[in-house]
Structure formats: C-alpha cells, structure tokens
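Homework help thread (please don't just give me the answer)

Our assignment gives two proteins as sequence + structure token strings and asks us to describe the second one. The first is just a warm-up. Here they are:
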Amino acid sequence: MLSTLLLNCNLEQKNKNTFSITFTDSLSKDVQDGRLLLLLAKDDKTEPRFQISDGLTTQLVFGIDVEGMKPGDEIIIDEKAFGFPIRNINDLPTGDYVVQALINRYETFNLKTGHTVKLPPDQGEGQQWNRKPGNFYSKPVKVSLDNTKTQHTTITLDQIIPAVEEPKDSKYIKHIKIQSKLLTEFWGRPMFLGAHVLLPEGFDEHPESRYPLMVFHGHFPDDFGGFSETPPPADMDTTDYSARFGIYGYRKFQAQESYNFYKQWTSKNFPRFLIIEIQHANPYYDDSYSVNSANLGPYGDAIMQELIPEIEKQFRGIGEGWARFTYGGSTGGWEALAVQMFYPDEFNGCFAACPDPIDFRAYCLVDIYKDKNAYWYESDFKKVPISSHRNYLGQIQSTMQESNYYELALGTKSRSGQQWDIWEAVYSPQGEDGYPKRIFDKESGEINKEVAAYWKEHYDLRHILERDWSTLGPKLQGKIHIYCGDMDNYYLNNAVYLMEDFLKKTNNPFYAGEVAYGDRAEHCWNGDAVNPNYVSRLRYNSMYLPKILKRIQESAPKGADTKSWRY
C-alpha cells in the first residue's frame, strides 16, 4: 500500500507543467494589475490570442489575477490557474504547442458609491482583450510538452498592442465624442460617449431642414457599418468561406451590400433621416446596454440627456419624441426595446430583432426564478448539461458551463468582457466589494435567488411591461415590434414567445405592434421573410426605415415638421 502511494506521488510530481511570465521594463517601469493569460494552440495559423473562444474551434487559455506585478517579476502559471477548455494545466496532452502570454491590464476606479474596483478600461477597441491598446504580450513560441515529465517554460512579455486609429469624417459619415458629466461623476475619472452619424443625402444643400433621428443600437462599432460610397473591386478575393452560412465570398457580398445601401440612401425617394450608431464601451464590456445600472452607472440618462441632444444640436435633429426611433439586433434588440420602455415619451417606435433575453423565465434556456442551477437539468439520477449555443439544425456547440468557464478563465468578478458577465454587470446590484453580485456561482452554477429577484424588478422587460402596463401601455401603443428566428443560436426566441403571450392579451390599450418569427432562421433575423438570413442581417436600415416613415405619417402631432426633410 505504501509503495502504491509513493508511486502515485512520484507520478504527480512528474506530471507537472509550470510557466513563468515576466515583462520587461522597456514596456513599463510601473507595477501592473490585471488578468495574466497563458495561451496555447495546436497550430500557428494565427497567434494563439486570436484562437480563443467558447466555440468548438477554441484553443487553450489559463488565467490568474495579478496585482502589483513589477518589471522582472516572474509570475508562475501552474495548476492553480483556471483553464479552459482544459481545467487543469497538468492535464495538457503530450504534444507540440504554440505558446503565448498576455496581460489584460487593469486600472483603479474610485466609484461614486465609495467602492474601489480594478477594471480594464476600453482603449478605443471595444473591450477586446486580445486587441486592446496598451496590453502587453509575448511573441508566439513553439514548445513541446510531455505530460510524463516535469517541465518549466519561461515567457517574456516584450510587445505592446498599439493605439487604435480614429475613424475619419467623410461627406456622409461624421463622428462625435463628448465627455459625459454623469458618467464622469460615477466612475471618478473622465468618461466619454461617442457616435457615428450618417447624414442624409442633401444635408448641406438644405440647411433649413431638420431631421428625424434613428438610433441603431448594437455592439461596439469602429465606424458606421454597412455603408460604402464605392463598390467592391471586381477582382476582390472570393475564396473566403463562411462556415456559419455555408457560402464562399461572403466578404465581397457584404461589401456589395454596403455599396447597395449607399445607392439606396442617396436615391430620390428614400427617407431623409439621421442614423447614429453609439459608442458606449465601458470597463466591463463593449456596450452599456443603454440603461442605468448599479455597476456601470447612468448610461441610459447620459445617452438620453447628454449625447443625443448634442447630436441633434450639431446635425439639425428635430429633437422631439415623435421624430426619434430605435432599432437593432441581439444586444441592440434588447436595447431598442428597453430604451423605448424606460424612456417611453422619447421614442416613437422600436424594432427589436433577436433581442437578448427579454423575459428571464427564458434566460436563454434557464429560468432564473424556478431553476436551482444554471448548468444542469437535474433529476434523481441524472444531470444533463444545459446548452448555450446551437446551429440551425439544433446541434449543440457549447454548454452553459463551458461558456461560463471560458469567461472565468478570462477574468474573475465579471471582468471577462464577455456575454454572461456583462448581463451580470448591467442587471445585478453592486456587491460589498464593489463588483456585480453573481446571478449564479460561476463554478457550480447555483442560482442566487435574491439577485434573481432584483433582476426581475429592474430589467425583466416582460415583467416590467406587465407590471406597469396601466401607465406604460398608453405611451407604447403601436411602438413595439419584435422579430426573432425560431432557431436562434442562443435560444432567444423562447423569451420572445413569452413576451408575445403577454402582448397578445394586453388591453386598455392593446399593444398594436408586431411580433414575427423566421422559420429555421438563426441569430440576427430581423423580420425579412423573403431573403435568407445571411442577406437580411445586413439590411437593418433598409428594412426598418420605410416602416418608420409610415409610422411618422400616421402619428406625427398636428403642426409637426413633416415636410422640411421630405425633399
């Protein structure tokens, strides 16, 4: 028995991988806080930092928090690091790897709430840890690992990601950036909001005209997307393959769609509107969800009271609720519905496509009010994993546990910059440590019912509509339009079904809007029942603007300016 124990101990000692990571003082002489990541890939088709995801093709990441790391300090990555998709670094299979390290650098924020937190500020890239300007990283190296031996590898961070180039103004696209007084006060340092503004044809030639404003919500845009004054080159490479849609040459197709929209935008009879895409990346994510939040601060009020009025002032917006509309997909779909509800007099309609969960009884496949665990369906004798992503055939690509373990490898305390963590950061109350309270334990999946109750009263859009319909209903009649594919990759259609059940039963008044589903359509379906999803997802503006024009014609108050912009 003793000899067996000794043998096991020897095997444990031999089967041990350690990596030491340091950074040079040529990058910085200051101490660093952040998330230190070790990245391994089986091939060098691209750097390991660009091969990490929660999908089937992901490579390996191991992460630890560091505070006060000095130049020359050797930080050890070993079995204590949290890994994904392999949990323990000692379980790495024998083989050849391309290895890289990176630190997602944190800065200290002294919040208005009195808390001090350490978070990665956005640096103009939209909260992408692997592309964030200022982050330190190492050049990839090839390493052979043998899981029967003890091995130690040293990695030096000696590279720094350069700054992002600011987009340039053109005839049609302008850019605006303001310091927000409200957000600066909350975060304890200067905080900014920005937007890309698409000007209507004839803007300069019609200085007397004032325009309706379209707020196109979505993830962080580096510039106004889907609009190009030039067609794609005839010889543009078309060998690229879209695995999602099963077609070649999708990049050229997208470029052609952008040019087609430009031609449509400048055509004689197309509506003359302002369209904006907002930049509101924050220390937790590439997007604030456009609402006030205990953890992110008053982004809703900052956008509505500071950014939009400044845009309407500079670019001759009408500046009244009947002439503002909002639309978007996914995150933008949730935002479109949320801002229409939370600022009901400030918008005249929302078009919410494939919205993030709008009823938390269907938080994707989890009911946060009834379920005990977010990772497993449980019975007396079985534990079945809950899916987080599927393709249009229903084939599972990732589970809830896997998606959240991926995030936990990238960052603790809701700091991964990924989807589940930002929902938590937006919807949760602030914890005693200043970070968001967990809706469920990130390792076990156990749901916190107190946090769930807070979510329900503050951000469950279906619940809020039902609870407050007597006051909200009269302000929202004819304004709510929701679209979702019935094979949405993230199961977002389930919450839309629940919302529709409520809306169909409304009275005094009846909601008088629209809910529609795309047969076998995946994520980003926006109500186009004619074209396949890979086409319709590129046509949000051209899909909704004619509907908005019709709404204005039917609902504009007497004496409203419905003519100066109709040239």
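The one we have to describe:
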Amino acid sequence: MKRVSTLAMGAAMAFGMNTQATAQDGVPGPDEDPYIWLEEARSDEALDWVRAENNRTMAHMAQDPRFDELTAEALAILDAEDRIPYVSIRKDGLYNFWQDKENPKGVLRRTTLESYKTDDPEWETVLDVDALAAVESKEWVYKGSTCLPPDQRLCMIALSDGGEDATILREFDMTTKQFVEGGFVIEEKSQGGVQWLDEDTLLVGRDFGGGTITESEYPFTTRLWKRGTPLSEAEEIFRGEASDVWAGAGLIRDNKGVVHGRTAFRAISFHESINYIWHEGEWVELDMPKKASIGGIIDGQLTFSTDVDWETQGQVFPADALVAVDLEEFKRDPNGAKKTLVWAPAERQTKQGGGVTANSAYMAILDNVVGKVLKIDFEDGEWVTTEVNLPDNATLGVQATSSETDEIMFTSTDFLSPSTLWYSNGSGDPQVLKTSPEYFDATGMEVEQFEATSKDGAKVPYFLVKPKGMEMDGKNPALLYGYGGFQISQLPSYRALTGKMWLEKGGAFILANLRGGGEFGPGWHQMAIRENKQRTWDDFIAVGEDAVKRGITNPGQLGIQGGSQGGLLVGTAFTQRPDLFDAAIVAIPLFDMLRYHLIGRGASWIGEYGDPRIPEQREWIEGYSPYQKIVDGVDYPAPFLWASTADDRTHPAHARKGAAKLKGLGQDYWYYEDMTGGHSGGVDNEQRAKLQALQMVYLMQRLMDDNEAGE
C-alpha cells in the first residue's frame, strides 16, 4: 500500500488492540468475536495456535512430491547470480543491495560504471548485514538508507529486527564503511524517518513519547536534531494534529543538494493532505487541492502533481497533470507564483513515476496500460517534452538517475520477455546495459488482452498469459491475480517464479486491471473507494466470470490470489462467489473490516475504505467484510491464508481470525504464518522460496490434480 495518511480518534482512544470495544461503539468486541485473542501478535496463546497451524500445513504440503522440487526452483531463481543487480547512481559509484545463498540477509555493495558494464562486475562490500546480525544477535533486515546530498557520504541506515516496518536508524560513513562513532543513532524502533539538513543537522519524525503518534502509529511531529545533543532536547519545528494519519516537515532541495526551503504536511486521510511552506517566520498553508503534492525541481521550476482538477489563477489543470511554478517566484510569494502546465494526460494515460538528472526530468507514463517514458525540459520559458526511444508494447520505468550528470537507467519488461536494463548518458538513444536470463521456457506461450463487463456495465481489462498448447476449451487450470486499491497499477512484467512454477506446468495466468488501481489514472482509483469499494470486488468477479465464459477455464479449475489489499480482494471474492472459484490464496490480508482500524496500522486506510465507527460507513463495509461473511452452511473453496508474525502493517490477526473462523465452522482451509518476515513475507530467499512452494503445491492440488469439473 503506497503513501501514508489517516484519520485518528485522538489521545482518548487507546492505540492498538482495543479489546474492550463493544458493539455499542459500532465495533465488535470480545462478546461478539470469539477469536479476538488472536489480535495479540505475540501472546503465548496466539503463537501456540500459529505453530500448530504451521505444523499441520507443512505436514500436508511438504509430503507432496512436488514441494521440494518447487522450493528448489524458486530458490534457484531468487539466488541466481546472473539476475540483474539493479543499482542506484551515486557520486562514488553504483550501489546495489544483494541477497543470495551466501548472503541471506544481504550486502550493500558498490562498483564502478565501467565494471558494471561487464558480465562479471567487481563489487566492493560496504555493509554486510549478515555479519552485523551475527555480531549483534539480531534478525536484521536492511530497510534502506537516507543520505546527505550531494556526495551522499553520510547516511542514516534503517534496520528492522525481523522485517517489521518499524526501524532503528544509525549513521554510517560510506567512505570508511563504518558506523560513525558517536554519530546520530535512534535505537528505539519506530515508524517515521529522517532528512539531512546539513552534515550536523537532521529533521526527525518519530515517536517521541507523550502522545506524539497518531492512531495509525505514525508520527505527527518533526524535530530539528543537532549533532552532539540528545534527541529528547531537539527543537520541535512542526506539529500536526493527533487526528491526522501522519504529519511532518521536509525540505525543498535541488539536485545539487542546495536547500531552498522547508515544507510540511498534515495527511488528514490516506489520500488527502494539507501542505505548508515556511515563509517569513511562520508556516503558511499552500493554496492547493488536498489531493495534490509538491514534487521536485526541474530547471529552476518547482513541480506539483494533482489527482483532481485544480482550478487556480483563472485556469484549470486536469487531474493527473504536472504543474510548475518558478522556484524563486515561489520563494517570494508561495501562493501567488504563476502556475504553468508541464504535462496533462490524454485519455487513458497516467503518470507512473520518474526521476531527475542534472539537466532533465524523466517521467514514465502508461498509455492504455502500455509504457512510455518522456524527457521533460524547460527551455526558453517553454516546457519541451520528447519521448525516449525504448521498446514498444512493454512496461517501462525509470530505474536510476544521477544528480551529478545526465546519466539515467531505464527498465523494460513484459510477461514473456526477460527484463532489460537500459543506459543513457543523456545524449543519444538508450543502449542495452544488462538483460535478465530466461528463467522459464516461454516457447509457444502467448499473451492476450480481454475486457470483462462489471456489474454496473464498466469495462474492465485483463491480461491472459497462455501456457504452451492451451486451448480455449474451458479445461485449463487458471490463476487470477488482482489488487485494485490505493491507485497502484498491476502491469505486464516478467514474473520468473510464476512462469517457472505455474506456466511451465500448464497453468494459465490472468492479471486483472481493476477499478481502485491506478492503471488509468486517479479517476480509475477514485471510482472504487469508500462507499463504492464494492465496485473493485465486482470487477474481480466479472473477470472470473468472463474467463469461464470465454473457455479459458471453469469454476473447478479457477484459483485467485492477492496480497494485502489484494488479500481483502480475494476474501471478498470467495465469500461473495464461493461457487466461482476452487482455490483462493489470501496473503497478508485485511480481512476483519469492522475492526481493521484497531488492528495494526489499519486506521491509516480509512480514506480508502471508510470508518466502521460511523454508522453510514459501517454499512458500506459490513456489506463485504470477509470475516463477517464467513457463515455456516456455505461451501467455501478451502482457502489458503498466510501472514507474517512481524507484519506491523496489516497485522497477522486478519488472516489468523479468518482461518480460525473457518475451522470453527468445520470448513476446509490452510493457514501458514512466517514467524520472522514482515509485510511482504520472508526475510531471506530460503523463506521466500518455501512460501512460494507452499502456495504452488496448494494450487496444483486444488486446480490440477482434482479437475473433474474441467472434464
């Protein structure tokens, strides 16, 4: 789930598991929910239950003769030495974080461009996470770094114990390859992060105690921390409100590292923020939509992105547009600076990220779910946009940029072609730098695109990847994957594990582009949130029905899969249409939507789903919440639910409670919980491979072995 933001109830409501809540609050409490005890992530009782379920699932799945083979196939791909080592471009070299069988927790390493261009680059280890974990007896997971521009020598390294989102932060010197003695350290794990103001000053947003986090467990204050002083004494420079999802201050900084001002925001919901600029000694609210954000600097112009139509200064900038003001004019008069249009989407186009080099900006877009990359420059007072010469009919992205030069790297991928990394120094067309090896045999496979008609008549696109020799006779095992939330797009890409472990074995793969996602811009997302969230579930069901109608598969051989918001999607699908599917992988899901705001960081997503404490909004949610929709007397398709004990985002309680309720009703189900991984599951490749094998064995047993319905 991207972005961070929410509505909070304030300090009067205890954060976390409100096990005293009753139906009088509009929230099921212990009297109504016999499995509420599973919301305590690490209680002895809950963990005993988890171990018993894991043992049951492993005893069944691991005895399948395919389990070891599938695990080995997944691990070989995940540990492959010849996979592309994607990099970031820094002043002192190209940096890569790498995990394999020799380095399960990973190494941060660097090389030169000249060496990287070879088939066997020479890497210099900067930080060995396995060695650090061994010395400190921790399950350290590397969560990235925040470095001081422009040379990026000093960095704050983020480490998570076991994979949860909460991290500790330590100052690290990339030149000496050592943690800085006496340097900045935040050892108490928390959400939030830091930004460098200068070599001796950090902007810090963390849990400082005393009620400085929201109900969603995100910080809403920012402090200015000077080197050599206690963090507890750092000056508070911005404070949001306890009712925000998240709030904090940041910097306007150009690609040379020069700071041009301070900004701040209050995320009043997951999708809405109030933005501020520090101007003449006070925080001034910016006159901009709540569904808009400040971007970066291009050729002395400060950019903004908007998810809604923006009417200002006698003109209207359309939703998804890129807007700019002159930076110096903005610094003098933040709300009066003249705004100009940089780019606006044509029909079925949308932005998909980008990057800035020393002299240009690059923006990846989708054009009817096909990738393009645009180069953007401000020349002689005009915006000039040119398309970068990259492959057609592929998913394209900006992988890495240099702030010092015009160097840039792009990626291209599709379902059946290995991913390719492209390089340009800013002059001429990009050239192939590296190509991923083929991890599965795509000979004879095909990709087609279809449209399903949803319940309200909307046309919903989806891709079908057909295994070799597949006929549209309705007798094919098929896996339908979806997400449909938070404006996140599901795009064609080279899915090596799916290809090797499913397509090669004769299974078809279907990728749905549901409303609620971002495939066609912010409007595609906003059509299916809050009171209209059922549209996402309807779209997914419509794709399943269309796949059966076209002869791709049949209900006895159709499985569904999704994680996080996608886990909620799968939960709604198998509870609303249990007759349409025969397998359902419910991964790291949201599931109990009447208590989701009390579990993990659920309150941060009220902007997407609504607030179950408000009767009108509870009615929307109650109409689909999978946990409540599991009832006696219905034959569900024996779902496989899995979660992670360390997941402090969606929380394992959702999957646990779903499995426990199915068990209580005597329904078939499977449950597995990774006891060390975070929200994505698995902290090393062996764990990830096992998770993949468990799911594939389950699908094969359900959809390939017992296929009487398809005969």
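TA reply:
I won't write it for you, but here's a hint about the kind of observation we're looking for: The longest helix spans residues 685-705.
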